[in-house]
Amino acid sequence: MLPLFLTAYLLCLRSLTATTTLLPRMTFTEKETAMKRLPLPGHHAPIEIVVEGEPDTVIAAGPKHLNSLNFQNPQKTPVEIHVLWTECIDPGPPPTLRADCNYNITLVHKREEANQLFLCGTNGKETLCCDMNLSEQSPGCLPLEKMEKIKGSIRKFVIKEGEPFALLDSPESDLYITYSGSQDNVGIHKFGKNRVTPARHNKEQHYVGLVLSRQREPLKSRVYAFYREKNRDRGLYSEMWIPFVARVCTGDRGGPKNILQYSWTSQMNARLFCGDTDSRQHFSELVDVATVQADQWQDTRVYALFRNEWGRSAVCVYTIRDIDHIFTTSPFKGKDVQSNRPRECVEDSTKIQPDVLRMIETYSEMEQWVRPEKNSGPLLSNHHSYTHIHVHGSRSNHNVLFLSLNNGGIHKVMQNKSQTFIIAEYQPFNHRTHVVSIGLHPSSGKLYVSSRNELVQLNVANCAQYGDSCELCVLARDPYCGWNGTHCTPETDGTLQDLTHGNHAICLTVSKVQLHEKVFRGSTATHADEAKGSVTLPPESKHFLRCPVSSHHAQYSWRHLGSNTSCSSREQQCLLLIDSMGPEHVGAYTCVSEEMGHRRVLAQHQLQLEGRAAGRSSSPLIWLCLMAVVIKSLS
């Protein structure tokens, strides 16, 4: 058995190592990477940020107006677009705007067609919806024929701001939107030709995402809703929230008269599990979800962000295939035999037998839980408190996650089948704030991050910041960056990358000329603080030696006359304090970083003592000091 102190040491070392790997490798502020910021008009958080086809144009939806922001010309005043609801215009003559028509925008959806938006607004009593063509000089609400069914059925419904929604764009379009809280109408609502509402219940539910799964046969298309439910068990060891996924069929019309009329007959609910059974870690508060669509509907992935009671965050990944398998095969909770209950979507839900409808009305939760893909644990679990998640899929078979922190920062995370890697932390704001939304323009690599009153554009393909060598570019493990033989570039086709391991040994494949030039230059030609300059200091003076820290995954140390002093990689600089300059401090100081076997000399300093010959490090004073120490130790 190991001694107690050695066991404690090993546990501490393991903890420190794990903590280091969970740190973002690099930190980027506006000093390190280009960031543009624009103030958001008004005094309210934006309802929605819509990234246009052009990489530098963004639509910010406020309570009353749309604002077009242009980052190519940040000094230009945002173009304010008034929403002229058709119902608010008195035809006249002459046409006038009714003064009592006061609607707040609550829903904005970017259509597949360029410059087309679908939006809704409410006055607290009723809701209006329309289409807008932003390419027009004075865009107005367009009464499209296929939206008339939605407009008619949603009129008496009040949309709560921030609720997730899904628009099924078809010959007869349907709008799905949730209502969170503890009121009677909490759940999934469908507006269109067939108005469908949630069944009455007394549960408190808060919805974070809707996923529309369209299939070739319209009858089989489904909507999946992700939400957290307040736990009724008030026990000491019970979680406050329970995470769920619900499924409804898009063709559901509700039941016949008297039994589930106009309510879902196809809704089934299943608990989500996110955690590690070995360590008994469990994450129960569902915070946000992001979807990566696949060519095959079964392979669509849902990235779910969780939190636990200790403030730790985790991300678990579920496939629609696994979710659908639970709804197809699991017994219903509280009822053992329901063999005649339909699991698949039916053509006409109004013709389901009354006894089956009563069973549906009573039992809707599955006995089995939905577990992450391949029954895996969280792909990311650490002490950070994340608030939003956005996922960019299919970057060289490596997905990139953008996670907002509760202080306003953004983590960029590379994820593949076997692991995750926190590439960098961006700090888009100059102060602590709450991130309202995250949006990415994939082709340009521009990320848009909004707070209540500010919108920031930053470049996530800032490859030059990783360094000017092949090794540093590969160590970054950034799917947006690769080494092309001369520099780290966002043009990744044909470039050197090792996203899985960050193995910089692949750089040996560069041409002999480039390799010889690199060896000749050495990896020490980067970041010299005082460039091997000689500094002469008076006796007993204090002095700091500074060395820049770039990668938080590297180990940093100062080397002087055979001694080695380590630094913390969490700080922005590796500092060495000369507390009282003496002959023993004379000589060369070298700051070295090591990361996965790659060694760099970052700074070199030569210290001399004023009034003494450089390089002499022994004197009678040193011997007197040593004798004093020996005498004290013997006394």
UniProtKB/TrEMBL annotation:
Ranges for domain Ig-like: 545-608
Location of the protein in the cell: Membrane
SMART domains named in the record: PSI, Sema
Domain of life: Eukaryota
One GO location term (cellular component): extracellular space
UniProt keyword terms in alphabetical order: Disulfide bond, Glycoprotein, Membrane, Signal
Sema domain span: 25-460
Signal peptide: 1-18
Recorded GO MF terms: chemorepellent activity; semaphorin receptor binding
Chief localization: membrane
GO BP: axon guidance; negative regulation of transcription by RNA polymerase II; neural crest cell migration; ossification involved in bone maturation; positive regulation of cell migration; semaphorin-plexin signaling pathway
Protein family according to the UniProt entry: Belongs to the semaphorin family.
Protein name (Swiss-Prot/TrEMBL): Uncharacterized protein
